[in-house]
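hey can u check if this looks right to u? its 314 residues, i copy pasted from the old doc so theres a chance i mangled smth
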Amino acid sequence: MIRFILNRLLMALPTIALVAVTVFALIRLIPGDPAALMLGDMAQPDQVAAMRIELGLDKSMIQQFVIWTGNVLQGDFGRSIVNGEAVLPLVASRFMVSAEIVVIAVLLASVIAVPAGVIAAWRQNSLTDLALVGTATVLLSIPTFWLGLLLLLFFGLKLGWLPVLGYVSVGDNIAGGMLYLVLPIMTLVIHEMGVLIRMARASTLEVLRLDYITHARAKGLSESAVLWRHAFKNAFGPTWTVIGLILGNLLGGIAVIETVFTIPGLGRLMVDSIFARDYPVIQGCLLFVALSYVLVNLVVDLLYPFFDPRVVAE
């Protein structure tokens, strides 16, 4: 087990290094001069040159990367060009808003969809199976922004049950804050349920065809005992991997939902920073998203042996 954990940790280090290089290179490929943007259109050439020296933009790319990496390792992601605010606290605060939505949505989708997928596999080719698979296919086909707008129109404007615009921090007001999160969470839950139902069904069908399931049935165990006590644990391994991938993807790709519902999360911050050409914030957001994706998948890998002990043995 220890060897397995060490191998996964060592495999994550090159990935993180590659992520840092990629983020740094992508930002440098964006057209425009950060120094000129920071000083405005009326800046004189000597002022721009002085600002480039202050920002370290006069150095070679390798020197810039070494300096930037050293600063990042010390927790210094730079300062926003727009408002001068430190990037790391800004990105971290916005990330927590996105994480609230994503984590709750993935948990709810998993609790609903995984048992539904298992039941669909257990009742293969029945009306229940066809209904669940058909529902999952429909949910997968609906774009999240369109689904969000429909929920906003129905529950917000027509029924008036939930707020349409704005945001209240859950830390400041738990009840009021959750009201603003219901619709974005519901949108993500409905969409991701389609993926999880299909994955849970496919993995459960594969396990139900194995010999030990036939042996368990031959011993006279009830179908519910065979399904939940013997099949579910082994079938959940591949689904757990998909849950991790969904969690990582949503942490980095929630910008559309946050834009639709005006949620001040990390995705919204990234979109606003791109329009404002706020390079330090864009760089910080990209690095934060990439690192969170790597860390989420690392945790998924480390927990996988609890669902499938054969992984450690291999």
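Residues 78 and 270 are 15 Å apart (CA to CA).
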